[in-house]
Here is the input.
Amino acid sequence: MEALEIARWQFGITTVYHFFFVPITIGLSFLVAGLELAWVRTRNEKWLRLTKFFGKVFLINFAMGIVTGIVQEFQFGMNWSDYSRFVGDIFGAPLAIEGLLAFFLESTFLGLWIFGWDRLSAGVHNACMWIAAFGTALSAYFILAANSFMQNPVGYTYNADRGRAELESFTDVLTNKVVLITLPHTLFGAFMVAGGLVAAISMWWLIRRRPVDADAFRSSLRLGAVTLLVAGVGTIVTGDIQGKVMTEVQPMKMAAAEALYETEQPAPFSILTIGSLDGHEPFYQLEVPHLLSYLATGDWNAEVQGIDNLQAEYEEEFGPGNYKPYIPVTYWTFRAMITSGALAMMIGLWMLWSTRGGRVPRGDRRWPVWLAVAAPLLPLAANSFGWIFTEMGRQPWLVFGLMRTEDGVSPNVGAGTVLTSLIVFTLLYGALAVVEVKLLLTAIRKGLPEVDPDNETGKQPDDRPMAFAY
Amino acid sequence: MELTTVWFCVVAFLFIGYFVLEGFDFGVGMLLPVVAKNDRERRAMINTIGPLWDGNEVWLIVAGASIFAAFPEWYATLFSGFYLPLLLILVALIVRGVAFEYRHQRDDASWKKRWDAAIIFGSFVPALLWGVAFGNIVRGVEIDADKNYVGTVFDLLNPYALLAGLVTLTLFLTHGANFLALKTRGIIHERARTVSLQVGLVAAVLAVVFLVWTSLDHGEAWVWVLSGLAALTFVGGLLAAWARRDGWAFVGTMAAIGFAVTALFVALFPDVMPSTLDPAYSLTTENAASTDKTLGIMSWVALIFVPIVIGYQAWSYWVFRKRISVESIPDTVHA
Here is the structure.
């Protein structure tokens, strides 16, 4: 394999892995902040216990999110140095601002939150978590603004002397129509994961360990399920708008999502296809007429451009070459994303239904536990599929219409070097995944901690042992 | 002043902040097996940096991203050129960060021992390699006409850079010991103070050799002055540690690291990465920089937000100002 191929695999693996933790971090930071706010407002102890319990789940996960994030930043320079040279003038600024505005907030205020239980008043302590949560969302905005430039470059001019893209309007970069719709879609996706996680853990406790803390876990179950559902609706709405923006700025990606080779009007949406997806007649295809026209444009009868037509168009514009992404991946990840998101919402509905009017699900059955476990895993999978789709659908472009992926790789880094780092990261990430999952399960099994509200919040004299210590 | 010069100063400032701050938490991590004799003492040590290390590490992330944004060519040359050392630093920072969060999650001696090893490894490797990396940046490396590093990883292990690595290693050890002495009471405090004096002497000798070497190579008056200030403040810090003035001892190593890193950046300017193949290939603040437009926007952002960041980070140091002793550590780990 060449350095290019290995570098691409490394980027894919480290990014998807990093993004297992990001949605949980974003969603859970807000949910934990909300739980603590409920405690501050009501002084009902169950909220404090839930805050500490889900706070621990959050922290175990946050550690992984942050350390895998550093790899992402370094990777641009290490594996993609020509890309960094080409877009640094535009792409670097959102990254730097993300660090300055968001990472400092997150890390400092989270440190205050973790260790500040006996140092800060309850209100200030809760504010620290809200600030950290706000930091995660801000971080999402800047990183997505950078990514959106790669999907739909705006606000730049090409400097032929320097051979690079240069900033023309930072406002245009920050208000790229792609980022404006990708941000809410990504945030809703994150809330689906976190809501599903909170609901699943609570459900597990209600079924397997009841009647221990049934009242508290019923509250968190419903909070999680409602979050999952509301965020699910938000994801659908924003995803629909995003599809139309995508059709406008990256028509090839929409065509690749459907494996639509010939331009059609109206275009049907295929739910599944058995066949090669290479443009030959499929063996079997289940279609919904007119649906792709609507998804792509908002008009049930509109024309949707096909892959072959776009290929011809691009050849005319950019010269000879292959401008098609790898179709089976785009086709199936697009469907997998939608399907797993929809299934997760159904589980959310079932969760609310089974706990309606003070009910608690029956404890002698196993299947509800497995169903609950799927509540965070399905949206997590949907998040990953969504990212794989959006990045693979951009190929062969690194920056759409401006730079091809093969031109962005570091020219001075050999295949052996990249392979070394790929192996190192894969092994390390694999080992850490095992540790993380074990720790999460242990923390979940431990259940709600006992708390002594008088000792936990508010300023304490200096001579007593710390309320929280590693 | 040119915006490119402004951003050279901002990058220098961010690295000074990073080494001054994370320098001490690297030091504490490295001293884990030296200063603590049992698990309770190790926990007390880790808790001195518990609320702070993560915020300190962000200084690196922002410094890296600022190089990317302000000097993309520097970022590209540096990160692709120093590939394997950076990979090692990344691995170290990953296992270290995870170790802090995971070590206390299980009450099991072998579990803790493994994460302790991760903290020690994760603190040693960057403390050494950042020095090696900066030594090479200042000394210059083999950069070709396309601005790419064409040397091997072994070329990076030259005497000057290795000495720089030993300097950062011993400086951070002393800095960490001073921080521990400042932040603890009792037996840990006493041991940290002793370590500070012993390692401090070694660090002083290495640093003086390194700074004289650097000053001779670059010959500018400012490099000599800053190197002298670094040496003076470091010795001042040692004297303060000896006189049991913990706060001043810590300020001393802080200032010494600050002056030493400043000296390196002054020696470097206006290059950001000199080429040893041909001076014409060197990356400078001019030919590596982004456009004035980008630099201008980022200057406003930095002007507004850097003081805010410093403000709330200072507040978090204030909130956790209390000294920790073995008695401060509760029996049960709860999180």
Observations:
- Residues 3-42 of chain A form the longest helix (40 residues).
- Chain A has a mean pLDDT of 91.
